[in-house]
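Much of the work behind modern protein science is quiet bookkeeping, done one molecule at a time. The fold becomes a row of whole numbers, each drawn from a learned catalogue of backbone shapes. The protein below has been through that process, and both of its lines are reproduced in full.
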Amino acid sequence: MKIEYDRDTCIGMFQCVAEWDGFEKDETAGKAVLVDGEEEQPDTFVQTVPADAELDAKFAARVCPVDAITVYDDDGEQLVP
């Protein structure tokens, strides 16, 4: 499973941080940070989600008020917008 995070869209509510430790607060920028995320495009970060964190990653995506987080299965099919 893969998670994609659009940092530009993020408004810094940090609800994702409360749901999954794969996200951290960047208080200076007022945005969340995808821990160990690789920048795929400017301000778009991706990371492979460990199997034991898949449920938490899905919750993090679901609680994002601006849909800045998307989760994909291993075939590239979108699971959570």
Summary: The chain has two helices and seven strands. The longest strand covers residues 2-6.
